[in-house]
Amino acid sequence: MAVVQKFKCPVCGAEVEPTLTPEALRAYEAGEALFLNLTCPHGHTFSVVLKKPTAEEDVLLDCEIRDWDRFSLLPVQQQQVVLESIQSGRAAPSVRALLRRLKDAGIVVCT
Predict the structure, then answer these.
(1) Considering the entire predicted model, what is its pTM?
(2) Closest listed residue to residue 75, CA positions, set 98, 92, 91, 59
(3) Where are the domains of the chain?
(4) N or C: which end of the chain has fewer CB within 10 A?
């Protein structure tokens, strides 16, 4: 079993490290999407999709929104795209420019 990626609980923010069986790990390495049900240390259950990023996707490492006041000024659709990217840990090419601008402005911080 191997840890592939960490996820944050959408309720409390606790980090969860899924462990995969050898079969699931082989499917992940082959590029298949895995649907996982995870439980955080506080007992909250949530579902995630684990997929190996393609060459055209950027992997986001531990990003968070630091300036919610300025973030709330974005259109709701852009807010949703950014939140989904941060939660999934991947940024599609169509989102990269927006995330770069938000990082430059200090609204989003990635470590």
Answers:
(1) 0.50
(2) 98
(3) 1-52, 56-111
(4) C
